[in-house]
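Quick one, T. Sequence first:
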Amino acid sequence: MHNYKELKVWKKSVDLATAVYSITYSFPKTEQYGLTQQIRRAVVSISSNIAEGAGRKYDREFSHFLSIAYGSLCELETQLLISVNLGFVSNDEISSIINEITELQKMIYTLTKTIESITV
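C-alpha cells:
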C-alpha cells in the first residue's frame, strides 16, 4: 500500500480538478447536467482512482487503478476539446489544462511501468 497523499501525481491531479471546476463555471447553464457534469466526473475520477489504487493491498491492483485514471485523463481531454468546438471555452483558456493533462499522462505511464517492473 502507498500513501497517496505523498504522491506528486495525486497532488497534481487534485490541482487539475480544481482548475477544471473553475473553468466549467462559465459553461452554459443548459449544460449543467450534460457536458459540464461529464467533465467534472472525469476529472474527479483521476485523483480518486489514484487514491483508491494506492490504498489497495497489491501493486498489481494499484497499476489497474492507474490505468483507469489514465483513461479518465483521455476522456477529460476529449470532452474539453468538444467544449472548444461548441464554443463553451477557447483553446487559449484550456491550453494550460491540456498541458497538465499531458504531463499527468506521462507521470501515470511512468509510475505504472515502474510498478509493473517491481511486480514481475
